[in-house]
Amino acid sequence: MSYIVYFNIVRAKIVVSSPYNKRQDAFADRIIRGSIADRNGNVLASTDVGDDGTEVRSYPYGAAFAHVVGYSDSDIGKTGLESVENSELLTSNAFFVQKMINEFKDEKNMGDTVVTTLDADLQQAAYNALGSNKGSVVVMEPGTGKILAMVSGPSYDPNSVAVNWDVLNADEDNSPLLNRASQGQYAPGSTFKVVTALEYMREHKDYPNYNYNCVGEITAEGTTIHCFDNTVHGLEDLRSSMANSCNSSFANIGLTLNKTAYRNTAEVLLFNKKLPAVLDTAKSSFKITERSSSADMMMTAMGQGETLVSPYHMALITSAIANGGTLMEPYLVEKVTNYTGSEIRKNVPKSFKKLMTPDEAAQLKDYMQAVVNEGTASVLSGQSYTAAGKTGTAEYSMVDGEKTHSWFMGFTNVDNPELVISVIIEGYDGDTGAKAVPIAKQILDSYYYN
After folding, report:
1. Is 0.85 surpassed by the pTM of this model?
2. CB neighbours of 177 closer than 8 A, spacing ≥ 6?
3. Model confidence over 330-388: pLDDT tens digits?
4. What gap in Å lies between CA 168 and CA 150, rounded to an integer?
5. CATH number listed for the domain at residues 183-333+349-449
6. Residue 282 DSSP code
7. How far apart are CA 424 and CA 135, in angstroms?
8. Buried (b) or exposed (e) across 259-270, using 16+ Cβ within 10 A?
9. Where in the chain are the domains?
């Protein structure tokens, strides 16, 4: 009896909503699958019904929303919001009289509409900015947790996914079906210096007095870390170390950190933990233990080593910094309405977890402003909107030589944060590794200037 109560209260909706539950097919026999819309009412997915009653799922924006909206096909299944919101889409809250009339006429009722937090214009801008690059973009509101855009590339057209199924699955070089935003696993590069700086602040209350003389490289126990292009940054404090993204300084910081405390801070920031998410996400990994070497500490502190993270996770960390240390629970569905627009249920913002204190968040925000105003993300300075952020270049080895991933994470309107953005570009062959920054700028400009 206890389990029956638990099942009905906790598990029932999960089981009923599961795309693996074959009973969902029975709903489709009497309900036309509902639509998915963006927050402004733009249709992202709908069901077209032919004169002969044939139903075809249609995706007006094609590849731009493929990974977040997903697809629904009777032969290959469902992904994205099509899967998560399967139960809502196959439920009809049409008016009682209308349902009775349809039953009498032996006609299907129209399923409910899922209204998302997504912004079609912002999503399209992110998709266009990403272009032919491999990578992803996540944009969200730090004060609410609403996800406004989630783009992964290369993408695919969900209108023809079934026809191209074998080709898409065989494309191991591009992995177009993978949602890189939430499931990608990357070395964070210098974006991780935010985590290292937070740990240093927690261990050293006199952190404003930190100083280090950068000569372009640092060596400890036979391992040498170089600054980008062997740049000599000279005497730096913690703020300028962040602004200049000084590898030597952060490697030096890494050598001073308590390994157990460092791991604890990383795990408070949700490394090695299940992330709060609507869609499937990969678990980020942080490998430092008491047995880690000096080389491990130096590499990890500057964002290399064995640390792996998703762009979505970096967006969550940035959101907490922008929101005074508190991470709001991220969500993708604003509300569910019936087909006429009458509201059935509505989601509201709620706190997920306090990742850091307000003072810690304010200090990191100041450091991230320095990155934009006088450091490696200066292309974002001087706009009508203010910005704070952190760039990153993550090196990795390929068969044909070493390449880099280019990162940017940040937020706009620093005094009253409005948008958080996380961008990664895979395998960038340039010599600056800063390609993610102009892409972020292009997306933000489209939002603020159009």
Report:
1. yes
2. 156, 168, 169
3. 999 999 999 999 999 999 999 999 999 999 999 999 999 999 999 999 999 999 999 99
4. 20
5. 3.40.710.10
6. P
7. 5
8. beebbebbeebb
9. 183-333+349-449
